[in-house]
Structure formats: structure tokens, C-alpha cells
Amino acid sequence: ALLFYWTLAFITKTIKFVKFCDNGVGFSQLRFCLTGLLVVLYGMLLAVEINVIRVRRYVFFKTPKEVKPPEDLQDLGVRFLQPFVNLLSKGTYWWMNTFIKTAHKKPIDLKTIGKLPIAMRALTNYILLNEAFEAQKNKRSSSPQGSRSIWRALCCAFGRPLLLSSTFRILADLLGFAGPLCISGIVHNVGKGNNTIRPQTKILGVFFISSQEFLSNAYVLAVLLFFALLLQRTFLQASYYVAIETGINLRGAI
């Protein structure tokens, strides 16, 4: 059903986008930009759905691939669900409501917290670091070993989470510029008098609002400011979490 829906949505939005291009509607018009973003979004969702069908081998395949849940989810003692929940719950830590409610009623202990997931245990991280170190030794068996090889092994074993944390931090810092820009636009707009949006361009019998006119409205800027601050705090929290978790795993491995 999803494959059929994403295919129809992608085709209809693509046709609409092509019609806009044929009639001279450009990036200066808000509806053109939104349609282009929807084409990209629906195309990505369609690609994800096709990849899921290919990997899981269902719908068009006679023998679908059996999917087993992770071992941590099969173990009732594991209650740390951060790696297994959806993206929204990861960003808001909604799955921790049970812990928070329990902590309000009584002090929590190790039994309430439960076991660590396999990926966060010291033995798992030690094996990961040891494999990376042995790979570095085999690559550079002729050259003398030193601190440089150790740093390479650490980067190979734990470099990706740190890179992800740095990416989140950069995105949060970039979103920090949105606040002053939105406030400046709001003050400038209110100083002139917050006039209502009056679209002037009419194409194919439909009024089109320009992107500049839409983004110069104080109410729109206020909403953008709210979401920018929300995303900034979310990215900052995600950056801190990934960095702290990686540091704990690295310390356990060493």
C-alpha cells in the first residue's frame, strides 16, 4: 500500500513541478519551492520503500526474508531502549517516561534500570577496539608502532559516532544564526507596519505568493523562530548524548 501511495504522490508532484517550469514559475515563487521539496521528499520515501522491499524480499518475492527482533529487545532485562525507538522518541527521549514516573514515586535502583544493551557493554567495545587495533598492526607491520597507530585504531572504532556528534553540533550552531535574523526581520516588519500578505503575481489564473514576501511576514518569522530554537536544542541534546555515550563506550573498552 505504501509503495502504491508514494509512487502516485511522487508522480503527481513531479507533473505539477514540470508544469510550473513550463509556465515560467521560478524559485522566487513559494509554491514552486514547496513543490520541489515535496518531489524530493516523496522520491526519497519511494526509494526507501523500494529498498525495504528489496532487502526484506516481500510483495513480489515468493520467499520473504524472516526478520527477527534484536537480541536486546528479546531480553526483558534490557530497558535502555534509546537505540531501538523511532526518531521522534530518540530526539525527545519519550521512552524514558517510565523511568521518570518510577523515580517520582521511589528511588530507582539497578534492577529498575535493567541491563545494558549488548552494544554498550565493556566486552563488546573492547572487542571492537581490539579488532581495530589488530587491523592497524597488520597494515603497518613493517613500520614501528606508536601512539599514531593507537589514535588510528580509536578513530576507526569510535570515529563515526564522534563525527555524528560533531555534525549535530555544527547544525545546532548554524541554527543559532536563525534567532537574530528572525528577530531582526520581525522588528523591521513591525516598524514598517505588519501589512497582510497581498500576492501580486497571477499565473494560470492562480495568485502566487513570492518567497520573499512570505518570509518577510512577522507571524511567519515568529513561527520559524520557534521551530529554529526547538531544532537547535534538539541537535545540541543529540550532540551531547552521542559524545557522552561514545566516551563511556571508549572508557569501557580501554
Can you summarize this structure?
This protein has 254 residues and is mostly helical. It contains eleven helices and two strands, in the order H-H-H-H-H-H-H-H-H-E-E-H-H.
Number of H/I helices: 11
Question: Biggest sheet, strands in spatial order?
Answer: 1-2
Strand composition percent: under 5%
Mean pLDDT: 84
Major sheet attributes: 2 strands, antiparallel
Share of helix among residues?
A: 55-70%
What integer value in Å does the Rg equal?
26 Å
Structurally, the number of domains stands at 3
Total E-strand runs: 2
Structural class, from secondary structure content?
Answer: mainly alpha
Shape: extended
- Uncertain runs with pLDDT below 50, 5 residues or more? none
Distance between the termini: 49 Å
Order of helices and strands: HHHHHHHHHEEHH
Transmembrane segments: 29-48, 203-231
Family: Belongs to the ABC transporter superfamily. ABCC family. Conjugate transporter (TC 3.A.1.208) subfamily.
GO cellular component, one term: membrane
GO molecular function, one term: ATP binding
